[in-house]
Inverse folding.
């Protein structure tokens, strides 16, 4: 699946109040072949658009059909696609996958975030769960 088709699966609606900073959290998963279940969490502060939750499911299904070298590549792809479609004020993506390369490592997690230049809301972001 190419980038345009993949991003086309993400549907957005108008933000009901562009003046407010608020946090949206969506959690889901991908199940890809023998790689197991990948937990995915998306958190963002909307600007003009909010993600329609059901579209995230179709998007994750499409990602599950693709091959990923590592969870970092997957997390970067999700964040880049969300940034392109939503143009959120702030966005964070968490990916947690079962580690299959060594018996002593159970999971491999990645957290990546981005924000619009000049945007900050320390009161809102300071209340977020610490990693």
């Amino acid at each position: 699946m190419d980038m345009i088709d993949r991003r086309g699966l993400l549907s957005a609606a108008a933000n009901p109040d562009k003046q407010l900073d608020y946090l949206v959290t969506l959690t889901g998963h991908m199940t890809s072949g023998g790689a197991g279940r990948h937990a995915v969490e998306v958190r963002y502060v909307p600007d003009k658009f909010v993600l329609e939750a059901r579209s995230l499911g179709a998007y994750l299904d499409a990602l599950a059909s693709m091959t990923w070298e590592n969870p970092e590549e997957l997390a970067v792809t999700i964040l880049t696609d969300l940034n392109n479609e939503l143009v959120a004020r702030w966005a964070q993506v968490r990916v947690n996958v079962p580690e299959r390369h060594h018996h002593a490592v159970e999971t491999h997690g990645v957290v990546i975030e981005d924000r619009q230049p000049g945007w900050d809301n320390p009161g809102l972001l300071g209340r977020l769960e610490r990693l």
User: Anything to note?
Assistant: The chain has a mean pLDDT of 92.
